[in-house]
Amino acid sequence: MDATQTGLLIKESRMKREMTQQALADALNVSATAISKWENGHSLPDITMLEPLSTILDISITDLVLGKRSNNNMSDNISKETNTSDAAVKSVINEATRQKKRFKLKTVLITICAVSVLFLLWLFLLSMGLPARQKNVVINTKITEESENRPFFVIEFASTRNKNLTFSTDYTMDEAGRCRECTIHIREVPVSFNESGLPCSWGTDTDFLNSPDRDIKIIIDYWGENMTYSLREEVNKLK
After folding, report:
1. pLDDT, averaged in runs of 10, over the chain (239 residues)
2. Do the beta carbons of residue 136 and residue 159 sit within 8 Å?
3. How far apart are CA 93 and CA 232, in angstroms?
4. What is the Cα–Cα distance from 120 to 180, expressed in whole angstroms?
5. Fewer CB atoms inside 10 Å of the end CB: C or N, the chain?
6. pTM for the whole thing?
7. How far is CA 153 from CA 14, 149, 157, 165, 206, in A?
8. Is 112 a domain residue?
9. Radius of gyration of the CA atoms of the chain, in A
10. Are 81 and 175 found together in one domain?
11. Per the structure, how many domains does the chain have?
């Protein structure tokens, strides 16, 4: 298709039928700007527009493709060829329309799948939370007695932003299989893990501190910053 020739044919046919660009645009459900671009040869109609253009402007699809009107006095053979060409072009248009619909459906399905994955990822992040910043957490330490009357060192964590807190711990063991280091990862979560409203807490038995060479390094892991404590020093502060 030649954009200039097809554009001129569309313009001539429209004016012959005394239609404005806006009227043709309304009939085709496109913008008047699109009609102007076609008529000025700046762009070509979408293939799916050829059949409705042909009907509205009373010209054959073949004429639109070629950009010129067929001779009105043409022979029956030429007329039959034109009709055959129109049928072939309509077949192509129908196939293009079907492919376009399939593409739209595929696009919709891909979009739905992508949104579903993002939603599930969002739920996962909600359940996991984000690492807390040090300034957003208040720490309280204390020694408490358990049922067996053994001293327990407890660290309580509370949010300064009324967020729900949760934590996980990683332990590093020494050669004797005893805990040498504990890393506590504090996280802020929008989903409540602490329905009681009490601070979340971590605790450990302090009996092993009876040995003077025993200590546990406690690392509280915040977002981009850590705080390190000596359990022996912290217990001595509270005695």
Report:
1. 86 91 92 92 85 88 80 49 57 63 81 88 72 91 78 90 87 88 89 61 86 90 90 90
2. yes
3. 82
4. 38
5. C
6. 0.49
7. 89, 13, 13, 20, 6
8. no
9. 39
10. no
11. 2
